[in-house]
Design goal:
It is a single chain. The protein has 9 helices and 5 strands. It has about 240 residues and is of the alpha/beta class. The protein has a 5-stranded mixed β-sheet with strand order 1-3-2-4-5, covered by helices on one side. β2, α1 and β3 form a beta-alpha-beta unit. The protein is globular. The protein starts with 6 loop residues before the first strand and ends in a 13-residue tail after the last helix.
C-alpha cells in the first residue's frame, strides 16, 4: 500500500529561494517548504509518503534569525508566512488540509477521504476539530505572544480540552483508526497533535482511544518516515 517517498533537503538562509510561484515548472518534483517540528507540515509529509509522491524539501526554520518565514523571498511563496507550502503542478498551495485534499484528488493510491459521504463528513469534522480547534491555539506564533511564563499552562489547557472533546467524538467514529479501519486525513491530523501534547507535557492516560489509535498509526511506514526526528532539518535528538 505505501511506497517510500525519497526527498532532497535544502535550507532557506535568507537568500532567494529560487522556486517562487512564477517558475514552478523549473522543478521536476514537487517542492515542500517545511519545518521539521511543524505539525501542519507533518500532515502534508504523511500524505506525500502515503501517496508515494517523491518531492524535494526546503527547510524554513521558524525560530532561527527571528523566523525565516518572515524573509521576503518566502513571503512570495506564502504571504501568510507559514509552513507548509507545496509547489506542485505549476501552482503553490498553502494550508495543510487543502494540500492533503489536492493530493488525494490528483494522485493515485489509498484514499484519504472516504467514498461514503457520512464517513467523509466525519473525517472532515475530526480534521477541523484538530486543525482549527486545538493546533492554532498552541502554535508558535500564539505562544510567542503569550510569553515564556504562561505558554506551557496555556498550551496544556487548550490541548487538554480539545483532546477531551476528541476522545468523546472517537467513541462514535473510531475503528482501528479515527474513522473506521482505513487511514484517513483525520489520522494525519491526529498524530502530529498527540506529538505536540507530549511536547507540552499533557498527560495522555485520560485519552485511551486517542493513544491506541496514535500507537497503531506510528507503526505505519508513512508516519515513521515523516516523523520530525527523521527530517533533514531536525537537530540531533529532536
Amino acid at each position: 500500500m505505501w511506497r517510500k517517498s525519497p526527498l532532497r533537503g535544502r535550507r532557506i538562509d535568507g537568500q532567494a529561494l529560487g522556486s517562487g510561484p512564477g517558475n514552478m515548472a523549473s522543478s521536476p518534483k514537487p517542492v515542500l517548504y517545511t519545518y521539521f517540528r511543524s505539525s501542519c507540515s507533518w500532515r502534508v509529509r504523511i500524505a506525500l509518503a502515503f501517496k508515494g509522491v517523491a518531492y524535494d524539501q526546503v527547510a524554513v526554520n521558524l525560530i532561527r534569525d527571528g523566523g525565516q518565514q518572515h524573509v521576503d523571498s518566502f513571503k512570495t511563496i506564502n504571504p501568510m508566512k507559514q509552513v507548509p507550502a507545496l509547489a506542485i503542478d505549476g501552482i503553490v498551495l498553502s494550508q495543510s488540509l487543502a494540500i492533503v485534499q489536492y493530493l488525494d484528488e490528483t494522485r493515485p493510491g489509498p484514499r484519504l477521504l472516504p467514498e461514503d459521504a457520512k464517513k467523509r463528513a466525519q473525517v472532515r469534522m475530526i480534521s477541523d476539530h484538530i486543525t482549527s480547534g486545538i493546533q492554532p491555539l498552541q502554535n508558535l506564533h500564539v505562544l510567542q505572544k503569550i510569553g515564556e511564563e504562561k505558554k506551557l499552562e496555556w498550551a496544556q489547557h487548550f490541548i487538554t480540552i480539545g483532546l477531551q472533546a476528541l476522545e468523546s467524538l472517537l467513541q462514535y467514529t473510531a475503528g482501528q483508526y479515527c474513522v473506521g479501519d482505513e487511514v484517513t486525513m483525520a489520522d494525519l491530523c491526529l498524530v502530529p497533535q498527540v506529538y505536540n501534547a507530549v511536547r507540552f507535557k499533557v498527560g495522555l492516560t485520560q485519552f485511551p482511544t486517542i493513544v491506541k489509535i496514535n500507537n497503531a498509526l506510528l507503526e505505519l511506514d508513512a508516519f515513521k518516515v515523516s516523523h520530525p526526528s527523521c527530517q533533514p532539518d531536525a537537530p540531533p535528538q529532536s
